[in-house]
């Protein structure tokens, strides 16, 4: 069955996005058809004027009289030259209108697609962190890159469909004025051809779903395998990845062949049917219906123009049906993304948070992931300028705690206060701009060293950049790089060592004197000498900012004023390094 509700939804969406310009576009489509019809209608009296047929009497007389009346209205006499001039003027005007319609159509099509892409991109980057935890990155990328291009195809096919419908209707009216019986026969033949090819339209929707699914899988898997290329090479498992990708490509090829060949079947059926109908018109019109010779020629011309439009109608309907799953997928993805909208208040930060170190207070904080409780009953206070560390085995809840403090995951119970203000009442965007954050896996972009350090705060000078780099013990390797701050780091920082990437990440976190510095396994790739230098630099910063350090590497937390030991989402021990070292508790087993 054809999903007419999906068709209505697509047209409604197009109208909502491009607005009244679409009405102008449709009007231009209709005007182009009317001018083409006028050109064809003018051929009847032209043929009569040069001695072919009677033109002005019998069947087709209405058409001839209409054209002659138009000439009189324009102040021209009835002559071969006048009729030819009318035809030429109609053709010129038709060409101008067609070009205007074509330009507006391309403009609306690209506007429609770009509006969708902007909507999706804005939604993705305004969403809560939870969206990225439950949605595959490849699916998000596929919706913006691939499905929107299929949406572009859907828009184009709606234009062809409307053009075919409007022009076919105009040609049918003109043909009916010339010969009603012939027109009825063609309408019947066209309807029969549509019925014959209807199963292909139904199959197009199924094939379209398959194309959408395989495109998404290709985006997801290719992203995963390219991102893990080092692992694949190191474990000699390139063929495993290649087999998976080749399987997806083979299925995508099968769907694409089916979709494309079905369109050719439709064309073949309509071409054969068109030839049969034109042959029938030639046999019947003169010998049985006794139609004027000039009228027969014009009717043939009309149907020669009409049949390809009927073929195009069916092909457009089939192509549009195969694209409709992309429209459904985009709407579903948009709903998913926008449901995760992180409503960031646009208000500025309170004066108490605009400068200086940040204080944190957690009261009975709990965090759940679905039905699993990750943190429970956490109560602690981090004074301004303090340096605290969270340690514990993998999976103890350390990173989740930081995510809760950053507002990336919601608390299931309890509260978090920042300088005495509940976290839920603060503008998160403004607060995060005052936080320097560095994770275990340092994300670098394929730009210069300068561009990576300035990523979050582009207003700073090179002097500020190098000062932050010095604190992160990155200034020496930057000065030794081929182009200094202008050295390109490669995709994901691939031209740098792991330690160099982490030092750049730390410099980025330190730039701009944040009120809170969060280091989540930030020293894991540093050698002992660099680690000691970085810790020494951070030691000098104590008091000027608040620091939270998460580490398996206990040498990195020795400088902390206070250490919390987490296990199964709860604080099981806390104290200074010296106190915990003497406690003979879980902390000592981590040493």
Which keywords apply here?
591 residues; four-stranded antiparallel sheet; 64% helix; alpha/beta; ABC transporter transmembrane region fold; six-stranded mixed sheet; 19 helices
Describe the protein's architecture and organization.
The chain has 19 helices and 10 strands. The protein has 591 residues and is α/β, with parallel strands linked by helices. The strands form 2 sheets. Strands 6-7-8-3-9-10 form a 6-stranded mixed sheet, sandwiched between helices. A 4-stranded antiparallel sheet has the order 2-1-4-5, with helices on one face. The chain is elongated. The chain folds into 2 domains: 4-339, ABC transporter type 1, transmembrane domain (ABC transporter transmembrane region fold, Up-down Bundle); 351-590, P-loop containing nucleotide triphosphate hydrolases (Rossmann fold), CATH 3.40.50.300. The longest helix has 50 residues, at 238-287. A hairpin with a 2-residue loop joins strand 4 and strand 5 (421-422). The chain is 64% helix and 10% strand. It has helices at residues 4-18, 21-49, 61-73, 80-126, 129-134, 137-178, 180-227, 229-234, 238-287, 293-339, 398-405, 428-432, 449-453, 462-471, 475-480, 498-510, 528-541, 577-583, 586-590; strands spanning 360-369, 372-382, 387-391, 413-418, 421-422, 435-438, 516-520, 546-550, 562-567, 570-575. The two termini are 68 Å apart.
